[in-house]
Design a protein that fits this description.
The protein is an alpha/beta fold. The chain has two domains: about 220 residues, Alpha-Beta Complex (Spore Coat Polysaccharide Biosynthesis Protein SpsA, Chain A); about 120 residues, no CATH class. Helix content is about 50%, strand content about 20%. Strands 1, 2, 3, 4, 5, 6, 7, 8, 9, 10 and 11 form an eleven-stranded mixed sheet that branches. Helix 1 links the parallel strand 2 and strand 3. The longest helix is centred in the C-terminal third of the chain and has 23 residues. It is globular, with a radius of gyration of 22 Å.
Length: about 350
Amino acid sequence: MAETELARDSSSDRRPKVTVGIPSHNAAPYLAAAIDSVLAQDFGDFELVVSDDASTDGTSEILERYTDPRFRAVTSHERLGQSGNWNRCLELACGEFVVLLHADDELRPGFLRRAVSVLDASADVGLVHCAVRHIDEAGKPLFLQALFDEDRVDGEEVVLTHLLLDGCVINPAGVAVRRSVYERVGGFTDKIVWGVDWHMWIRIALRYPVAYLAEPLALYREHGKSGTTAVMASGRNARDEAWLIHDVFNSMRESRPDLYRLKRDAKRGAAHRTWCFAESLCEAGDMRAARIGIRNSVKISPITLRKAEVWTLWLATYFGYPWFKRLHARKQRLAARLGARASEP
């Protein structure tokens, strides 16, 4: 595989405590912000490695600006793809701990210091993640994604249960993992596109306690050109979720029968998430993609067909989303009146 490496001289051969790897592909509008957010951290014992996956958008010019000795860049001239580039970051990492930061996301001040402190204090913890602030394309705050109200080290598999039933509750924007953990569980799967990180977090949480920082120490950017948006529009998310559920639960059939019993509920959760994505697509006016999502929801869990909202959303892909909203509002008003009557003496 042909590669070009842009490296800076270093005065020491000592391995850094942390490797921050940024897998990048045509992310020039956001890449500098991601890099700058790492270089501005108040914990300095790190290396920053950008693995550029054959970008064609001027990324190379951005990378050439940086002279910090902790910074280096490796450019692949042939496409590796998402999981291939993430695994390339792991191969390039020299640090004891590894942070993979998407090229359109950012770390907030204090993330590395806080994450390293937790991993140093708890030798059994395999992964630490944090609350994450979602932002729009221009960096405007959207909402806070928080799993718990306070810091914790979860040794009772609460996070694992959430991952199995509720989807990817660990946002990849703020995650630090021991390099030895990645070496034990193996690389990111190339079998799927949607949920590659989710699949990895489950594999780690099955073997190690997971720590959480309640302070929002990372920013996750939502924009129309993100991989997440494209996958949802194609319906690939549902197919990949179905594969992921099959893969992780089959691996637990003999070793963790207590968790294997959750498979049916996990499938229902995946079907509901797929339906919710379909509703968002319908609201955005992408009716074809919405219908694909509804069909995929039913494929994941056929019991979904019993729900009236599935059929009404299907009709809304022909009559328009406002029709669906009016019908839903009417149903809520009727339910409220019936509830009020039932409470009367």
